[in-house]
Every structure is written in C-alpha cells, then in structure tokens.
C-alpha cells in the first residue's frame, strides 16, 4: 500500500492521489484528524525536526512558518540548545524564527538532560489513549511507522513500570534510567561532548549505564546475591534491550527487586563519587533487602487495617450500632492480638449522622493479653480524639462489655 500511494513521503505527509480507493480516502481523512491534533512535546529535542513537525505550542498547526534555512532542513530542536544544559541558544533562535514564533519557542522548557520528545494529542484530555488506538488502527494499513513502534514500546514500558510494586521514587529513578536521563558519565558526555570517566567501581572500562548496571563486577555480585539471573540477559543490545529482556523473564516481584537493585547500585555509586565512600556490594544487597522488608511491612499493615475495617462494619451491623446524639461524636475502638505478629489497635470516630470523621490504627510488635490491648486501643482513640479537639465523646469498646460481664 505504501508503494502505491505515497512512494516518496511518510505517512503523515501523504495526499489523496488521483482515483483513490474508498478505504484509502478514509485513511487519509483519519490521518487528517491525527495531523490536526498530533503534536510533539519537547523533552531533550533530539527527535523533533524544527521544520515539518508540529511542536510550537499555541499556534493552529504547531508547525514553524518561517521558511527553512537552506542546508539546515534536518535541523533538530536539540540543535537550537546550548550544549550541556544551557537552554535555548537565543542568537540561533532569533535568526531562525519569526518574532511571534520566537516568543513561543523561548517559553518551552527544554533541557538536554530531559527525557526524549514524545507525541501527544492536543485536542482532548484522554488524548493519549485515542491517539494510540487510532494510530494503531492506521498503522495496520500502512506498512511501517517507526514512530508508532517506538511509541508503543514506550507505552509498554511505562504501563508495566507503574504496575510494579515498588516505591514511587524508585519508579521515577527507573524511568529516568530507561530514558537515559540519569547523570552517568556516558550520558553527560553524550550531551556535553566531553570525556567519559572510567567506572567509579572497578576503573576497568569507561562508565556507561550498561556497564554500571549489568557488566561491572560489582553489578554481577549484586545480581547474584539477590538471586536475579540478569547479568546475561539482552546480550548484544543496549540498556533498553537489557531491561526489556529482564522484565520479559521476571515475575512482578522480581521486576520490583530488579528495579530496587538498579536504584541501590546508583545510590552506592553516587556515595562513592560524591562522598568518597568505599564500595561494598554486600551493602547494596542489604539495602535492597531492607527496603523490601520495609515495603512488605507497609503492605501487611494496610491489609490488616482493611480487614479490621471490614470486621468493624460487620460487628456494628450485627449489633445494631447507633450514632451519637446531640453534640457528641462516637468513638469505636478495637484491638487485635495475633500470635507472633504483635498487636494492632484501631479507632473510628463518627458524627451524629454516622459519617466517618477520622480513623486511626497502630501496629505494635509486642505480646499483650487482649484486655491490655483493648485498654491501649481506648487510650489511643481518646488521645486522637483530644488531639482532634472533640469535647464530647461517646466511647464504645469490647473492654467495657467484657469487664461488665465479669
Ligand atoms: Zn565497573
């Protein structure tokens, strides 16, 4: 199809020729819609052409109106930046653009250390999805579109990344790593055209992301210690191929461990560079394990809290719970003791309509008998009520029921 209808141009530049088929006309019309709203969001400017692509915000077409400078048709937005993160090269911008374009261009926040440029949909809020589906449908008809495939890859990575159960800051770091936006020696050199330093861990070769996180002896030690078989994955490819190969083979939990491993290696590398700390792979491994335990505990806590809330609701329903009257609020407290795990206390405060005002729960690693636990739950709840400024509190607790029964 490509050969027949647009022999010399890419998909977004094709026109309806003579005697076009019905299907083709439909595709071109749909493409017109895409063309209308599809814009480039500038990150580092490397993948966006100054002329021909829509990237100027706030204009109808998004494209540069100033005529292209002969011999500079392939100029990218990154070429308009001062190397090394200095922002726009104003002299160059002045010479290329018309005054109203110049202003809009200079207002775009750019950085040579930012993520790659992306497509976005300018016309509606949930645009990303509709562009993806429309684009995928159209790509099924056109023979190739490198933009679509790299975009789809980006989406895959991104979607997976956000589902993996790790701390948001680890996700953020990992996304930067995938976008080659962390300040490794090779990434900096690529942008400043400066020299690459040797690996701060082993000094055997120049520092690159792939070396630091996969090939370095320190990294190999860490992966072995964490039981992740990823030193050999993605051989022959770059960093992204390595990450995708690992993720393809790992369970969700191992993907999380892998991300934490990279994060801890990076943390250790920075301590080594900026604080002169000695490198100890065992400490990197310990750091990953500690964070995993911490995350696991947070998860158990929230699961306990949910179970408690469900139980409270069930209890109240069966016992015909009544809200407080007048200016009172009602405080329900409860405690649970679990062998080997500790004691959890909780309190829920409701207004006269039965609406929950607030709740509090505390987990303690102690061994108390249920009576004590319940008494502490009462204390916890009352303290919180005082702190919240409630003057009139009705309290309900198993403590009173059980002591009354004695
Ligand atoms: Zn090394």
Question: Helices and strands in order, then pairings?
Answer:
Elements: H1 2-5, H2 22-37, E1 38-41, H3 90-96, H4 99-106, E2 118-121, H5 127-139, H6 146-163, H7 168-178, H8 185-192, H9 209-215, H10 217-225, H11 239-249, H12 252-275, H13 281-319, E3 329-338, E4 342-350, E5 356-364, H14 370-387, E6 393-397, H15 398-404
Parallel strand pairs: 3-6
Antiparallel strand pairs: 1-2, 3-4, 4-5
Helix pairs in contact: 2-5, 3-4, 7-12, 9-10, 10-13, 12-13
Bound molecules: zinc ion.
The site of zinc ion has 6 residues, from loops.
Largest sheet descriptor:
4 strands, mixed
Overall number of strands: 6
What string gives the helices and strands in order?
Answer: HHEHHEHHHHHHHHHEEEHEH
* Uncertain segments: 1-33, 124-148, 401-406
**Number of helical elements:** 15
By secondary-structure content and strand pairing, the structural class works out as: alpha+beta
- The helicity comes to 40-55%
The average pLDDT is 76
Tell me about this structure:
The protein has 3 domains: 2-147, no CATH class; 164-294, no CATH class; 322-404, Ribonuclease H-like superfamily/Ribonuclease H (Nucleotidyltransferase, domain 5), CATH 3.30.420. The longest helix has 39 residues, at 281-319. The protein is an alpha+beta fold. It has a 4-stranded mixed β-sheet with strand order 5-4-3-6, with helices on both faces. Strands 1-2 form a two-stranded antiparallel ribbon. Helix 7 crosses helix 12 (252-275) and helix 9 packs across helix 10 (217-225). It has 15 helices and 6 strands. The model is unreliable at 1-33, 124-148 and 401-406 (pLDDT under 50). The protein has helices spanning 2-5, 22-37, 90-96, 99-106, 127-139, 146-163, 168-178, 185-192, 209-215, 217-225, 239-249, 252-275, 281-319, 370-387, 398-404, and strands spanning 38-41, 118-121, 329-338, 342-350, 356-364, 393-397. 49% of the residues lie in helices and 10% in strands. Zinc ion (ZN) binds at residues 199, 201-202, 204, 211, 216. Residues 199, 201-202, 204, 211, 216 line the site of zinc ion.
């Amino acid at each position: 199809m490509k050969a027949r209808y647009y022999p010399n141009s890419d998909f977004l530049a094709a026109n309806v020729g003579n005697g076009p088929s019905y299907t083709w006309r439909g595709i071109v019309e749909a493409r017109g819609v895409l063309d209308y709203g599809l814009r480039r969001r500038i990150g580092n400017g490397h993948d966006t052409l100054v002329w021909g692509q829509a990237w100027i915000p706030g204009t109808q077409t998004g494209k540069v109106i100033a005529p292209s400078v002969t011999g500079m048709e392939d100029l990218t937005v990154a070429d308009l930046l001062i190397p090394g993160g200095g922002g726009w090269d104003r002299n160059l911008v002045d010479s290329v653009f018309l005054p109203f374009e110049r202003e809009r261009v200079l207002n775009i926040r750019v950085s040579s250390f930012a993520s790659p440029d992306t497509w976005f949909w300018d016309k509606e809020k949930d645009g990303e999805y509709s562009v993806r589906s429309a684009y995928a449908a159209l790509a099924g008809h056109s023979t190739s579109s490198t933009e679509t495939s790299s975009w789809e890859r980006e989406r895959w990575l991104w979607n997976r990344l956000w589902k993996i159960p790790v701390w948001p800051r680890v996700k953020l770091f990992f996304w930067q790593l995938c976008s080659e936006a962390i300040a490794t020696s090779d990434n900096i050199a690529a942008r400043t055209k400066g020299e690459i330093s040797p690996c701060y861990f082993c000094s055997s070769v120049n520092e690159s992301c792939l070396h630091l996180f996969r090939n370095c002896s320190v990294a190999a030690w860490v992966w072995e210690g964490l039981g992740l078989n990823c030193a050999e994955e993605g051989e022959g490819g770059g960093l992204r191929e390595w990450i995708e190969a690992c993720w393809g083979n790992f369970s969700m939990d191992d993907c999380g461990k892998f991300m934490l491993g990279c994060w801890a290696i990076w943390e250790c590398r920075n301590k080594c560079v900026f604080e002169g700390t000695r490198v100890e792979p065992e400490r990197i491994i310990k750091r990953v394990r500690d964070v995993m335990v911490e995350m696991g505990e947070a998860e158990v806590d929230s699961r306990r809290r949910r179970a408690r809330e469900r139980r409270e609701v069930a209890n109240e329903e069966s016992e015909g719970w009544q809200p407080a009257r007048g200016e009172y609020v009602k405080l329900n407290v409860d405690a649970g003791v679990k062998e080997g795990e500790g004691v959890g206390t909780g309190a829920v405060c409701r207004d006269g309509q039965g609406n929950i005002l607030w709740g509090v729960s505390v987990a303690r690693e102690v061994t108390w008998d249920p009576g004590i636990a319940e008494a502490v739950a009462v204390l916890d709840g009352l303290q919180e009520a005082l702190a919240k400024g409630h003057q009139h509190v009705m309290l309900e607790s198993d403590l009173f029921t059980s002591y009354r029964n004695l």
